[in-house]
Every structure is written in C-alpha cells, then in structure tokens.
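User: Okay, second chain of the day. Same drill as before: sequence in, structure tokens out.
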Amino acid sequence: MTDAAAIMVPEKTPPRFIRALKAMRDRRMAAMFLLALSAGLPYGAVLGTLNAWLTTEGVTPSTIGVLSIVTIGYAFKFLWSPAFQTAHHPFPFLGPRRTWLLSLQLPIAGLLFLLAFSNPGENIGLVAVIALFAALFSATHDIVLDAWRIEVARSEEDKDLMAALYQFGYRIAGFITGFLALLLAGYFGWVVVYVMIAAMMVLSIAGTLLAPEPEIETGPGSKRLTFQAGIPERERTFATLLVAAGWIAAFLMIATFVIASFTQVPPPKGGAFVTEQGPWIVFLTVLMPAAGALILLIRHGREPAEIIDGPTGETRAARITRAVFRSIFDPLMDLIGRLRWGALLVLLLALTYRFTDSVWGSFAYPFYLDDRFGALHHTMADVAVASKFFGVLMTVAGAALGAVVISFLGRMPVLVAGAVLAAATNLLFADLSRGGMGIDAFLEWTRLAEPFRVFAGWAAQISPEGQGAEAGERMARLMIAIAGENLAGGFASVAVVAYLTSVVNARFAAVQYALLASLTMLIGTLGRPWLGAMIETQGYYSVFILTFWLGGIAVALSAFEWFRQSRLAPAEPLPAE
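Assistant: Same drill. Structure tokens below.
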C-alpha cells in the first residue's frame, strides 16, 4: 500500500532557473562559449580592428569603404545555408557538424595569422583577398554553429541558456578584438595584435573538441514543408535559374568595382557605383526574387506541402535547384502569402532599419583616430576605453532598456522609437566633428555642467596620453556621444529583432529569419564606398547630417507599419509543427 502511494506521488519539477543552473555543468555549455569566441573573433578582426590598423597606416576612408565590401558574405550567407541543412561531411572523423566547424576554424586562424604580416599600407590588394576569404569562412562557420546549437539542445532551458552564452562569448570576442587589441597595438604594434587574435582563434578550437555531436537525424529522407511541391519542375527550374543569374550578375558588379578600385588609376568613384549600380544590385538580389515569388503564388496558390529531400536517383543539379528554391522562394512566398502587400513593408524595413549603424560601423575607427576630414584624432587608448569598454556597456544597457520597454508598450512603439533614436544620434557625432559645442550647450542648459567637469577629470585620468582639463573634456565628450549612440543602437537592435521575429513563420523560421537578418546588412554594406568617398570630399560633418536624414526613411516606414498593423487584422501564420 505504501509503495503504491509512493508511486502515485508526482515528482516535483525544479524551477526554471534551477534547471538552467544545473545545465551549466554540461560540457555543451562550455563548448558553446568557446565556439561563440571562434565566431566573434574573425568578425571583429576583419570588420573593426582592421579598419583601425588601416587608419593608422594612412589609408583613406574611400579605400576603407571599398575594402569593407569584402564582408558582404555575412549579408548573403543565407544563400548557401541550405547546403548545411543536413549533417554531412566527406570525412566526418569528429562527426559531420564538428568536422565542419574544425574545417572552417583552422583556415580562419591561418588567414588571421597571414593578415598580421600583410603590411596593409603597401599591400592593400593582398589584405582585401585575405579579408574576403576570412569573412566567407566565418559566415559559413556561423551557419554550421547555428545548426549545431539548435540540434544539440535538449530542452527550452538549453536553447535559452546557449543563446545567452553565445551572446556572451561573442561580446567577449568583441572585447578582445576591440578594447584589448587597441591597447596592445599602442604598445606592441599591429603584428603582435593579429598574432594574438590568431592564437585566440586556435585556442577556441577547444570548443569543437569539447562539443558533443548532435544526435538529431537530418540526413536524406528528412521531411520539410516547401512551396515547390505544387509547382511544375520546369517552371520551378526556370524561376530558380533566373534568380541565380540575377545574383551572379550582382556579384559580378560588386567584384568588378572592388577589383577596379585596387587596380585602376584613378579608381572608380564610390558615389557613382552606389547611385548607378546599387539600385540594380538591390533589384536583382531582392526585388526580382520577390516579384517571382508573387507570380508563383498567383499561379499556384499559397499552401506549402510536405516533400522528402534527396529522393533516390535525384541528380546533383536537381538537388542544387531544390536548395536554391528553398533558400530564396520559400521564405518570400510565405511572407507574401501571409502579409500580402505588407510583405513589401517588411522587406523595406529589413533593408533600411539598421542602415545608419551598418554603413557607419566601418568608419567609426577612422573618425575616432584620424586627423583629416573633421575626424577627432584621439589616441587608441582613448578609443579602447570609450568605444570598446564603456560603449559595450552602453550597448548592453540599451538592449536591456529595449526589452523592458517592449514588455510595457509593445513591439511597434519601440520599433518607431528605435528608428528615431538611431537617426538622431548621428547628430551627436556631427556635433563632435565641429568641436562638441552642442553637447556643451546641452549640459549647461540641463545644469549638468558640474557633474560633467567631474566626469571630465576622471576621463583625463583614464586617457594615458591626455593631460589637463581640455584633454579630459574631449575624452568625456567622446564618451557621452558614444553612450548616446550605443544606447540607441542596443535599443533599436532589440526592437528590430523582435519585429522580424514576429513576422517569421515557425515553419520556415531558420531560412526566413536568416534572409531578413541578412537584408539588414545589405544596403549598409553597399553604401560604404559612397560614404567613404563623401568623407574625403565633404568631411564627416556632412556625412553625419546626411545619415541623420536617411535614417528618417526607417522612421517613416516603421510608423507606417505600426499604422498598418493597428488598422488591419494580421493574417494568422501557419501553425508550427
């Protein structure tokens, strides 16, 4: 009787945070942190630290803007993500997922080591080639890592905890390639810095050796939902090849411009590239596939069906066509089918919302370090403390603030506010380029001048080469501007992630979100050559005023989308399986 009663007593489930703490003892969590380092190190080294090195070597902003296009692989990685949907490797000695991670981490470490001895002041073409391949390998590594992270999780607590560890490891990588790299460069030089980053990349490979191989079966025969099941093969192949041809043409335009920029004298103008070829690139890569998806929906209906990937006897060409269709048309057809004309707003918001952040990121170091075109001419120690230490804290604070405000006001008001703040903070940097008189006047008007002077004295102490109140005030102005910009950036990033997540269908979540997230980087990446050339001709002040007004596009689109959602009942997404 006692035994029976004991059996019937339900076992208590520990609270969620207790389960999360217990999960921390799992080797998957340690592996997740180390693998996040291996993802963040090449991104920071190629997109941020390299631009600081180029600035100290006297490379012009226009050249830096052109070179930044090599990171476009991060914006287009969704195109080849279906190739890694199934866990397969020709030599899976560690298991397919782990072998792919190692196969990508080793060449990334080698490329970062080569970058240390590339002498960018004299060999900018070599630097471009190394950076291009490092970015492509790194973007592919992100695809495999995301697949491993999702497949190896055993519960919702695991997913949340691994996502948090991923962000934490990525921020630590940014701390290494930002704050630590700038401090060490001032004492030991850039060669030592890049050798250190390459060594850290090798050490992070321990995460791959520690990680378990996922147990989920994702090989041939796995079932998925796709719109291609209801479309005749000939029509599907034609649409896929047409879009693929458009992508190839767009890549050739970009490659031709980059090569000409490093080989022709005089080089082509970045402004002409953006205004003449930029619209065609956006049309070929975004608008033409969207139009094709709309036509297919009109002709063949809006319901996806279940198919089996990789049927017996399917040719390699057929598999590639199927994968390209799934990566491009499935997410677009689902968006258009559910949201109808609202899908156009979603695509336009994805393209424009983070423009001011993504286009400005490549010129942050030149603006802080250079002494030309209205730049600030701070020391690397100044920038390390203000941008890569204090600024990171402000980004985290902005993200936390955004999450709190969303819980009270909802998603759409925060989306609009984030767009306004992201645009407005460009005026802080415009003011800095003219001496910071506006910041000083604001402090006097708000009666914060006295706290500001205390802050200025502290800022002077943390700047090793700064002496006296004037140097401290310059440092404090920089930190105040960065605080405003990073708070707004963290706030806006939470807003746009929440918004894009809300329009994603659970049945197409992986590819659909990858597509939308990639589009947020496209316009900013393409606009960098134009902005770099404008810096050299008109100075930083004019550029910041322009980016402020361009940020108004995202403000208007966000407000319009808020109005649309408030007036129209949103279409229900297809239920998740």
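The first strand starts at residue 223 and ends at 226.

User: Thanks, on to the next one.
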